[in-house]
Design a protein that fits this description.
Order of helices and strands: EEHH
Number of strands: 2
Strand content: 5-15%
Helix content: over 70%
Number of domains: 1
């Protein structure tokens, strides 16, 4: 495990991450920080806690959409493979 510090909205947070996850966690922290800053600019009159909750909901929405897209891709790939298998079986039957 490696100790790192990430900065979100100007505040540093110490984290312990696996050695091979340091760069990934830094990128995640940068993404979260950018999202929080965007919401802070757009909602400058709102308390920081509201901004963080709305930004977290936005990030979660992106995650759910990405998961949905992956699942749809897998389903499409499975249908395609079934179609290819069916076509190959028919072709083999015709050859025999």
């Amino acid at each position: 495990m490696k100790s790192i510090k990430v900065t979100i909205l100007g505040k540093q947070y110490p984290l312990k991450v696996a050695d091979d996850e340091v760069e990934n966690m830094q990128q995640i922290a940068e993404f979260v920080d950018e999202k929080f800053r965007l919401y802070r600019r757009e909602l400058s009159q709102q308390p920081e806690s509201t901004i963080m909750v709305l930004a977290a909901l936005s990030i979660a929405e992106e995650l759910f959409e990405a998961r949905r897209n992956v699942n749809q891709s897998v389903e499409n790939e499975n249908r395609l493979m079934e179609s290819v298998n069916y076509s190959l079986e028919k072709l083999l039957e015709e050859i025999e």
